[in-house]
Automatic annotation (TrEMBL), chain A:
Residues 116-178 form the CRISPR-associated protein CXXC-CXXC domain. It holds the Pfam family Cas_CXXC_CXXC. This is CRISPR-associated protein, Cst1 family. It comes from Geoglobus ahangari. InterPro entries: CRISPR-assoc_CXXC-CXXC_dom, CRISPR-assoc_prot_CXXC-CXXC. It comes from the Archaea.
From TrEMBL, chain B:
The keyword Acetylation does not apply. CDD domains: Cas5_I. It comes from the Archaea. One of its GO terms (biological process) is defense response to virus. It comes from Geoglobus ahangari. This is CRISPR-associated protein, Cas5t family. Keywords: Antiviral defense.
Amino acid sequence: MSGVNLTREQSEKRTQSGSLFYWTGHPFVDAGLVAILLIAGKKKPEDLTVEDVEKAISFAAELYATKEWSTKYIHGMIFPNSGILMANPSMGKKRSPTSIAENLQSIFEELKSSDNDSPTCVLCGRRPAYSKKDIYLSVFPLLGTGGVPNFFHSANLRGADICAHCVFLAQFMPLISYRLSRVLVIHAYPYELMLELSKEALEDIKKSKLASQARGFRRPENFLFHLVGEVTRKMESSEFWENASVTLYYFICNNQNQILDLIHIPTPVLRFVAYANYIDPMGWKRIVAMGWRVLPDENDFDKFERERRNVVYSRLLNNESILSYFYNSKERKVNTNWNLLAFYCQEVLGLDEKILEFVKDVGDRIVETIGMLPDHKLDDEVRSLERAEKLYQFEAFFIRIEKLRQNLGIDKPLMTFDEFARILMAYGEDVSISWKTVKNLLLFRIYEKLHDRLMKSAELDKIEEFGADESEYSIYGGGNE
Amino acid sequence: MIRVKIKSWTASFRYPTFQSGYQPTLPVPPLSTIQGILSAARGEVVSFTEIPFVGYVFKSGGRGVDLERIYALGKTETDVIKREVLFDNTLYLYLPDEWENYFRRPRYQLLLGRSSDMATVESVEKVKLEEKTNVPVGGTIVPATSGLPGLVHALPVEFDYSTIPRRARMARPFTVLPFPRNNAQRKRQTYGGKLLYDSEINIGVWIYEGLHGKV
Ligand SMILES: [Zn+2]
């Protein structure tokens, strides 16, 4: 039989745990640990010393005592009415770095005590729950309020069972959070990755004494995808993301409002975005650019990226295909090369490599055929493929190409009957992909090979068909599958 | 071993600490929910310490967000929260043979989350799973240390119900792996070590056996 012995793992961890802190898997607790590690310039919790902790406490207390942090950020967005961080507006007069540091210190002291009467922490499962305070959302974001005890197990009037270790660390979470219109915590595993993705927040704080605004990004997913690109280019490899787990927690927690968006970035998507940034950053930019309603010009890209929702990103996050964004059907040109397309198909859509090669091959045979046609005829054929919205129209395209080959005197048939069946079924059992996937791949190949000629004929058409109804062309406006 | 197939229209598995305003659901149940189902079937609180092994695979058809009115205890005012709900769910449990009787005639109503997420047993079958290496895992949680990529989160393993309120007996970081939807996800969620493989459902089954007698 198989599996992992959780208890053995646990006891091993216990023997090592001369260390003050450990990773828990909870995004807010892990975030606090990342903050302390980054302040100390260390990478592993077991390397942290009491001096490191004291340094972190005074760093945090200094900031948290300022008005900008206490009422606007901590109270207004993360820990409403926090007594520990003295963010409650009524505490304005008593609030000082010293008093906040004392509060933090006193929770830290609790790490040493072992009150065995207390229930075990529901997050780390290692320590007794902190009992000096009731644990509601002013102590730990997004927990319920004391006013509605039924949010908690058996209406526990003391709130959640969370230990001093986990409560303490959560207080440092704001130091590595990004402040967009809500608070963004990037939780990642392996944890080195989390250190990498969070360090900018702390660096910004050191510079400005204010929470990092994530360079003015307004959407968490756009910011994350931007970071993925940067980290990959810096590492000069996309391997970094091999088995990466990244989840975004985008929340607000104040007295009026508790909202949370939990955005998990699928690992195949991470790997693909990293690979795209690595092998064809310009091409990737063109693909992303098509995800906005209006195509940004060169100068607007950064602005759009910071501010606007992008369909390419949302489709990636929802496991929806972005194949049609790999080319620009209006201009009949491809945004990147076949290699990146193939990587996407295999890594994200799960298309078989052999099938992909086969479709590419068929694409080349189609190019061979229609390439022999005069410009306007070529344009007709490509247009018929572009317009195929129903399966029978798609099939009719192949039959016409087959006839063309005969008329043109090309030796071999476009494909055998078996191959024909295969191309209609190339997507296998996965119904979320469809024959439209194959259509997109073929169009990509055709645009890749015949772009110049297609554009030439389009120019001709414009002159010939001058005065024709404009809306006829609008259906080519890229992006829809 | 037996494989119990349980179906439900709705399911909702809360994260341990996101409980105010919006309650997202984990994509698959944590072990503590499995403990709850086993306890309901047998009619008394069970602990994984008594069970030589347990494994599960969960699949759902989709998810949505529902509005839920909370009647605050001891108060007249109500609170409305948003709750994420999973639809059209199937849970396969892999258990020792002696569990067959409990699931043929469960003592209490089986639930996949809240009291409204009622579930029914569709079948109980004897199965013999083959051990394989390099098989995809999904529809379950695995220890974060497994190295498989997914959603990492701290989750309770089981609760002690001898007190009110109940107390967590154990919590760990787990990687939550949804049932793979395509080959790409299957490839990413492939575990290099040995695992039992259910060829009917086409998935590796992560078996927890280390809990026996130890928690
Ligand atoms: Zn804890």
